[in-house]
TrEMBL record:
Protein name per UniProt: ABC transporter, permease/ATP-binding protein
Domain of life of the native organism: Bacteria
Chief place of localization: membrane
Membrane topology label: Multi-pass membrane protein
Gene Ontology CC: one annotated term: plasma membrane
One of the record's GO molecular function terms: ATP binding
ABC transmembrane type-1 domain segment(s): 40-328
Record's keyword terms, sorted: ATP-binding, Membrane, Nucleotide-binding, Transmembrane, Transmembrane helix
PANTHER family: ATP-BINDING CASSETTE SUB-FAMILY B MEMBER 10, MITOCHONDRIAL, ATP-DEPENDENT PERMEASE MDL1, MITOCHONDRIAL
Originating organism: Hymenobacter psychrotolerans DSM 18569
Length: 606
């Protein structure tokens, strides 16, 4: 087993080869259909190249016979000289080379195009899957569909299928040829070989199980490395370097043990193959030599027979491995098809061309909204939420952590389906809108701004991908982001994200605000960052937010007093319900109220 760390992918899950799994897995072939002409040409060339390969031992046999005084006579009575046979052999090899080139060229084209199409279909599917899907499935598991599962299929299209085809053909043609040469010897050979191959396959299976165990152990060690490197600050802060090193060493020792055991079997397997297989060959050669000595077989026939036997042996040996690969591919293709069959977001429809663009005023009406997260159906997160917002109003949602504020706004974006009640925008239930169109009118400035790896320009233009430079600069100015962007030597082209510079929290927020300004939505959702900014930064962000909120319906998940004061209405959320509502002044004077208490707390803290 290789523990070099280069082969980290866990052994792909295999599918038992049944009629049903085959039918299911073969649906992936619909992606080959557009390239069927190339595929068929590839198959024809493959047949031709296999056929020419299979001719070689036969012609070599004839060449040997000609050398030992038994000339090769064509059906028309012409005897071929040694040179002519050698020339024919050369011709066959030349053809074989050309066919192989053509086969590879056509088959790999089909596999490359098909794989591109499958990846594209998967990606398109991923981005249109509903949010709960991503909560139920780990990102790693999803990405491995588009990487390793698709690569598995690519291998199959470009290599495994061709190999399988060739091996089966070698087997059929090979057995036919040796039968033609000598039935007796063939039967003897076929009785000797299969038991050895069978044993080898059992051995091979055991090794695969051991390899998988080693890989699993190796994966565990990698998890430790990943975890500790990602959380290196925590490791150091808790002075747990030694603890982690011990943990890693223990895990490495397990890997080592598993690898040594697997290697022992591997070594055993190799010596078994050498001794077993070669004993078989010796046995067959001994029998063949006896036949030649008895004059029942020519030297050339012995030669051909020997070569065909090697071909047959190799293809029988290869078939076991290919069978395993086909099983893995069926598993991979089933997992891919499963994703492709997943329902997309319910109202995700492509825009109908020619229809007038949707206009949104921005009246919002929540009517008895109840909600449970699909991943936690036992917890009623929102119980009975009703409120209205007139177009252009600013409302603030306040309340303790976990009260359900973010959930309320996520439902407006239709990230989840409601468990009860209705949400109306401009008097129409949100489920009746075209999802993409409606989301186009809702802007969001999240608590934690995610910047995509790329330039600041690209990140701002994420709000309107076709924005001109001028529009981007205007948006950056309004968002109070222009000063700091301008101070970078590369300005808008400054790279941010993983490969670029790190922006401060306040700068990131202003980029997010610029994004939202550029999007120019009728409805705005602001999730204020809880982490405090320095007062200068806070002031700039606040100004930018005020600019952004002008003339829009705004829902603010508010943490800052200044925002709350300016709101037209405040909804105090607790335990999934609205427990108080009113203006700042009204609520602040209700001494026993939650809002007044939260306010007091904030004052004390500041
Ligand atoms: N994706 C999710 N899946 C399952 N439960 C969730 C999910 N998101 C939030 N919750 C749960 O829903 C409840 C409400 O969470 P929510 O994020 O809406 O609260 P919040 O008032 O916005 O809190 P905070 O001010 O801390 O952001 C919490 O109990 C939380 O654990």
């Amino acid at each position: 087993m290789n523990t070099s760390g280069t082969d980290l992918a866990p052994e792909p899950e295999k599918k038992k080869l049944t009629k049903q799994s085959l039918q299911h897995g073969l649906r992936i072939f619909r992606y080959v259909l557009p390239y069927r002409t190339k595929f068929i040409i590839g198959l024809v060339l493959l047949t031709l190249s296999s056929a020419t390969t299979m001719c070689v031992p036969w012609v070599i046999g004839k060449l040997t016979d000609a050398a030992t005084g038994k000339p090769f006579v064509l059906p028309n009575g012409v005897a071929l000289s040694i040179s002519q046979i050698a020339l024919a052999l050369f011709g066959i090899i030349l053809l074989q080379g050309l066919f192989s080139f053509g086969r590879i060229w056509f088959v790999t084209q089909v596999s490359e195009f098909t794989v591109r199409d499958i990846r594209q279909a998967l990606y398109t599917k991923f981005v249109s899957l509903p949010i709960p899907y991503f909560e139920k499935n780990r990102v790693g598991a999803i990405t491995s569909r588009i990487t390793s599962d698709v690569s598995q299929i690519q291998d199959t299209f470009s290599l495994t299928l061709a190999e399988l085809f060739r091996q089966v053909m070698t087997l059929i043609v090979g057995v036919t040829f040796i039968m033609m040469v000598s039935v007796k010897l063939s039967l003897f050979m076929l009785l000797t070989f299969p038991p050895i191959v069978l044993l080898a396959m059992v051995f091979g299976r055991k090794i695969r199980v051991l390899s998988k165990a080693t890989q699993d152990e190796l994966a565990k060690t990698n998890v430790i490395v990943e975890e500790t490197l990602q959380g290196i600050n925590t490791v150091k802060a808790f002075t747990n370097e030694q603890f982690e090193t011990r943990r890693y060493t223990a895990s490495l020792t397990n890997t080592l043990r598993a690898a040594l055991k697997s290697n022992l079997y591997r070594g055993g397997f190799v010596s078994f193959v050498i001794i077993g297989l070669f004993s078989g060959i010796i046995l067959v050669l001994w029998r063949a030599a006896s036949l030649v000595a008895a004059g029942q077989m020519s030297t050339g026939e012995l030669f051909s027979f020997g070569l065909y036997t090697i071909f047959i042996g190799a293809s029988v040996g290869g078939l076991g491995e290919l069978y395993g690969k086909v099983q893995s591919t069926l598993g991979a293709s089933e997992r891919i098809l499963e994703i492709l069959d997943e329902p997309t977001e319910p109202t995700h429809q492509p825009r109908v061309a020619g229809r007038a663009p949707l206009e949104v005023r921005g009246d919002i009406d929540y009517q008895n909204v109840a909600f449970r997260y699909p991943t936690r159906p036992d917890l009623a997160v929102l119980k009975d939420i009703s409120f209205t917002i007139q177009a252009g109003e600013k409302i603030a949602l306040v309340g303790p952590s976990g009260a359900g504020k973010s959930t309320i706004v996520q439902l407006l974006m239709q990230f989840y389906e409601l468990s009860g009640g209705k949400i109306l925008i401009d008097g129409r239930p949100i489920s009746q809108y075209d999802l993409t169109e409606l989301r186009g009118h809702i802007g969001i400035v999240p608590q934690e701004t995610i910047l995509f790896g790329g330039s600041i320009r690209e990140n701002i233009a994420y709000g309107k991908t076709d924005a001109t430079d001028d529009e981007v600069v205007q948006a950056a100015r309004k968002a109070n982001a222009w000063q700091f962007i301008e101070s970078f030597p590369e300005g808008l082209d400054t790279l941010v994200g993983e490969r670029g510079i790190k922006l401060s929290g306040g700068q990131r927020q202003r980029v997010a605000i610029a994004r939202a300004i550029l999007k120019n939505p009728a409805i705005l959702i602001l999730d204020e960052a809880t982490s405090s900014l320095d007062s200068e930064s806070e002031h700039l962000v606040q100004q930018a937010m005020d600019e952004l909120m002008q003339h829009r319906t705004s829902i603010i998940i508010a943490h800052r007093l200044s925002t709350i004061r300016k709101a037209d209405k405040i909804l105090v959320i607790d335990g999934g319900r609205i427990v108080e509502h009113g203006t700042h002044d009204e609520l602040a004077h209700n001494d026993n109220g939650l809002y007044a208490n939260l306010l007091k707390l904030q004052f004390e803290l500041s």
